[in-house]
Amino acid sequence: MAKYAFLFIDDGVDYQGSPTPEQQKVYADIFKWFETNGPKITDGGAELQPTRTATTIRTRGDKRVVVDGPFIEAKESVGGFTIFELPSKDEAVALAKTWPGYGVEIRPIREA
Amino acid sequence: MATYVLMFVNDESFRDRSKDEVAEVYADITRWSEDLERKGVLKGGVELQPTRTATTVRRVNGTMRVSDGPFVESKEHVGGFAMIEVPDLDEAIRIAKAFPGGVEVRPIVVH
């Protein structure tokens, strides 16, 4: 067994705003997906608020600079993450394919 | 109190550093996280393996397509997460500033 981080990818749809009925269904399906796969989760992680709420801190020279916005401006962004314990990467991919939302980036965890 | 996620930003410069330099950064990170743990602020975290280990599954025309690599190819990428419980964003930013690297701070959705 190994731990995999699922980085849920947002395609810019704001579910916290005023979602269409179709988007509401996706959101409901996501809740069901978490219920179904609950036993495989080792860390529930979090659902993140939209990138417009992000603040990024970087090092410029020897100064720490605080800017509004995500560290990378792109159509797709990280919308949340959850840690799963699964037998193999193939299982991780198979599970990610059942994700009702837009997409998932699968990354193995570096265990300390 | 509010929960914020800190996303650690890795860039390729890390790869060019010597073993000693990398060890020093890791020691700084350990000190940073131990301090937060002592204060009861840190609510878990995870370090991700490099993006070359990433697999992305994405819906294209209704079908889930699998591709190697991270969802966005960029000089910078997510290297890990931590969750902190703090009174406000200002405190979250103060903590992020003390981290030895780039950090994106995001509030979480509370259900």
Counting structural domains of chain A, the number is: 1
Task: Give the overall silhouette of chain B.
Answer: flat
CATH class of chain B, anyone?
Alpha Beta
The secondary-structure class of chain A comes to alpha+beta
Distance between the termini of chain B: 15 Å
Number of strands of chain B: 6
Mind summarizing the main beta sheet of chain A? 4 strands, antiparallel
CATH class of chain A: Alpha Beta
Say what oligomer this is.
heterodimer
Q: Order the strands across the largest sheet of chain A as they lie in space.
A: 2-5-1-6
Shape of chain A: flat
Strand percentage of chain B, roughly? Answer: 35-45%
Looking at CATH, which topology of chain B would you report? Alpha-Beta Plaits
Q: Give the amount of beta strand of chain A, in percent.
A: 35-45%
Number of individual domains of chain B: 1
User: Please, what is the CATH homologous superfamily of chain A?
Assistant: Dimeric alpha+beta barrel
- Mean pLDDT of chain B, to the nearest integer, reads 93
Low-confidence stretches of chain B: none
Please, could you describe this protein's structure?
The complex is a heterodimer of chains A (112) and B (111). Chain A is an alpha+beta fold and 112 residues long. Chain A has one domain: Dimeric alpha+beta barrel (Alpha-Beta Plaits), CATH 3.30.70.1060. Helices cover 22% and strands 39% of the residues of chain A. Chain A is built from two helices and six strands. In chain A, the strands form two sheets. Chain A has a four-stranded antiparallel sheet, covered by helices on one side. Chain A is flat. In chain B, the strands form two sheets. A four-stranded antiparallel sheet of chain B has the order 2-5-1-6, with helices on one face. In chain B, strands 3-4 form a two-stranded antiparallel sheet. Chain B starts with a strand and ends with a strand. By secondary structure, chain B is of the alpha+beta class. Chains A and B meet through strand 1, strand 2, strand 3, strand 5 and helix 2 of A and strand 1, strand 2, strand 3, strand 5 and helix 2 of B.
